[in-house]
Design goal:
heterodimer; A: 360 residues; alpha/beta; six-stranded mixed beta sheet; 10 helices; B: 164 residues; five-stranded mixed beta sheet
């Protein structure tokens, strides 16, 4: 969080195939091994597991992997199926239940978190590890270049001069836990759900993924809806019965392509969120694809805990109509809820409502 | 619960002519999307109020290989002249998108990858998807398509009431 608040970024220009591209990539120095993707995914998941302090081998621990292209750079020589990547990750973690991969284009991370929530709510799991990662490769970069979607400069979400996205690399993981009192140390064993009054004190300390939705634009496979249809429907679903006043911010997809940001502005206005602070993080670490939903959720929870709405790096002049409440400056907040929003190819849109301390 | 499948080796163009005939975008699709598109047509062709926007139906597509057949086509083009038309199909969820667009289904659409065809697991994940309170029915498909000539498919149209 400190690095993001300070605006530190690993962006730079890289040689391409042959066109150069501007990106935020991870340092591969010193890495030796069969797969950098498998390596960073495992490291992120292990770090999350350590923090959660749970036994990954339990039959009540599940695993969800979020990625778009996994090990695609090895397509000429190896099994690059996402199933193989998930199997490798499960073995590395010592998870004994069968993993599932959610590969829903750019909303994969958010859809994977929602899948994890559903697994917990099904009652079959106490904990679900949700890990997401993307490494960049000639495959992805030349593809986005062929679509003329990349900017050769740091991206400018929601800005009037925005001219495309920057790709990024990351691995991120969250361990979701059932909100049963029996799993919280400070509470006596009980099957009560967290919504019970008896667990209210504990509830103040944990982030809850209250509601999530995935909705399709039913419009176009590679262009967002002009009316923000799917994004609006997803927002409407997760905010049913929730006042806009409760939200600290909406952390949007904000890729800095002309069409995406305009679409999100329409969806946000249709959902009545035009006054809620909006921020986008891709001006810091680029579009991390399969990791984005998880990474941006983690950073947003940390920002909310610190009482801040993070600035939107790269934004300076309103470039969407109708306008949204986006700012280049950090702002203060005392609210403990936010919405994570993402959209992607295939017409998919996702929204996830995070809250700490129960409904206000 | 209705179920259909398309055996390997069947001409998808002939199936398209038989079941659809008036959706030329079909010919731009990769094999995975063509299969999902046709399976859906076979399941819903006689539904009342077709093409009326609805948000209460999910499209849930499962496979092991995802879109690897098309990934190989794109990787081939990439070394020469990267094809944007091929690149947009290098995502396992484009098939769910094509089905949603064709039918004006604005509900959930998702792609899942499992290590093998396992009906029990598919239904477990489908039941979990019904936790979305808007979802009343789902188009569920297993479409494993490692190449343009070989595939294994099964598709179902299920109502929430049949799942619980």
């Amino acid at each position: 969080l400190a690095a993001v608040r300070a605006g530190q970024s690993a962006f730079r220009l890289y040689d391409g195939w042959p066109e150069p591209y501007y990106a935020s990539l991870l340092d591969r120095k010193g890495f030796e091994g069969p797969s950098f993707f498998d390596h960073i995914t495992l490291q992120a998941a292990l770090a999350a597991l350590r923090e959660a302090g749970i036994d990954a081998s339990s039959s009540r621990v599940g695993l969800v992997l979020s990625t778009i292209k996994g090990n695609i750079e090895k397509i000429d020589t190896e099994d690059v199926s996402l199933a193989a990547a998930a199997d490798t990750l499960a073995k590395g973690l010592g998870v004994t239940t069968k993993p599932v991969v959610v590969s829903n284009a750019c909303i994969s991370g958010l859809a994977a978190l929602l899948q994890g929530v559903r697994m917990i709510r099904s009652g079959a799991y106490d904990h679900v590890i949700v890990a997401g990662a993307e490494v960049q490769s000639r495959f992805i970069v030349t593809g986005f270049q062929s679509l003329k979607a990349l900017s050769l400069n740091p991206c400018k979400p929601f800005d009037a001069d925005r001219d495309g996205l920057n790709v990024g690399e990351a691995a991120a993981a969250i361990v979701l836990s059932a909100q049963r009192a029996s799993l919280l140390e400070s509470q006596p064993a009980s099957e009560n759900q967290l919504s019970d009054a008896s667990t209210k004190l504990t509830r103040n300390e944990v982030w809850e993924m209250v509601e999530g939705a995935v909705r399709n634009d039913a419009n176009h496979i590679s262009g967002p809806s002009r009316t923000g249809e799917g994004s609006y429907h997803a927002l409407r679903y997760v905010l049913d019965g929730v006042s806009a006043d409760e939200l600290a911010f909406v952390n949007v997809h904000g890729t800095a392509t002309r069409y995406n940001d305009q679409m999100e502005a329409i969806a946000i206005n249709r959902a009545g969120l035009q006054d809620v602070p909006v921020n986008a993080l891709k001006g810091i670490f680029g579009h991390t694809m399969g990791a984005a939903g998880i990474l941006e959720s983690i950073v947003s929870m940390a920002a909310c805990d610190a009482g801040v709405v993070l600035p939107t790096h790269g934004f300076s002049q309103m470039g969407v109509e109708p306008a949204v409440n986006v700012s280049a400056q950090e702002r203060k907040t005392d609210k403990k809820a936010f919405v994570k929003l993402l959209s992607g190819f295939g017409g998919v849109n996702g929204a996830l409502l995070f809250r700490k301390g129960g409904a206000q | 619960m209705k179920q259909v499948s398309i055996p390997s080796g069947v001409s998808l163009t002939e199936l398209y002519r038989q079941w659809v005939g008036d959706y030329p975008k079909f010919f731009k699709m990769d094999t995975l999307s063509k299969l999902g598109f046709l399976l859906t047509e076979m399941l819903v062709h006689d539904e009342p109020d077709r093409f009326k926007f609805r948000e209460d139906r999910a499209v849930l597509v499962f496979s092991r290989e995802g879109c690897v057949a098309n990934d190989r086509h794109y990787a081939g083009s990439m070394k020469d002249f990267p094809s944007p038309a091929l690149f947009v199909y290098t995502l396992p969820n484009i098939v769910s998108g094509e089905i949603s667009i064709r039918n004006k289904w604005g509900g959930e659409s998702s792609a899942y990858v499992l290590d093998s065809f396992d009906e029990a697991r598919i239904w477990e994940l489908v039941r979990q998807a019904f936790q979305d309170k808007r979802t009343q029915s789902a188009l569920v498909a297993w479409i494993d398509c490692p190449s343009d000539e070989q595939w294994i498919t099964s598709a179902w149209l299920v109502d929430k009431t049949e799942m619980f």
